[in-house]
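input
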Amino acid sequence: MAAPILITGGAQRIGLALAKHFISADIPLIVTYRTRHNSVDELEANGVTCIQVDFNEPDAIAQLVEKITEHTNALRAVIHNASSWDCEKLNPDHNALFDNMMRIHAKVPYLLNMALAPLLQASNEVSDIVHITDYVAEKGSPKHIAYAASKAALDNLSRSFAAKYAPNIKVNSVSPSLIIFNEHDDEAYKAKTLQKSLMGIEPGCQEVIASIELLLNSNYITGRTLAVDGGRHLK
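output
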């Protein structure tokens, strides 16, 4: 049986779309989630191993690794998708905000990459770590300062781990800007956001899926960041 792919934060939005994509390809999956949505029931019905984890808990990483090793002795890939879109305006406790952003976007992937390396190296093929970062890691964001800094840290981890784990594990980042709108986004916000990229569209999750498939299928790409931003850096 093929080694499974682990997706953190796989019960919503891009993570859920990724999970459904791999299900359709008959690839075994392990998915983590923080809050149990109806999508978790759907994933479990399709044979996905779903593990509840709150990365704010002190023993979360150790417990997660233990549960993963109970299910498999090898991993094909780890896709770090778990994320928190928090900002200074909505969180006046800037000390806690910064720590939380760095924990979920940098410390958790760092510790998981360290702990899960033996499972990735046990795969029958070259394995992968993929960090889902963000366009703002390159540009910064005055409204999401801590968030942007933490995503930049995650992007940097890709290069360090690529050098550490080569040639058995490839490590890369996918850096999206707008992929899909939220349900509550109004038309004025959508129009303003679409103007920020050259392509001017809401591309959908398939763009991130295709980018990750490119990295998984490559035998040569490692330590790189694949931008999925519609040319936004040129505006």
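quick obs: The chain has eight helices and seven strands.
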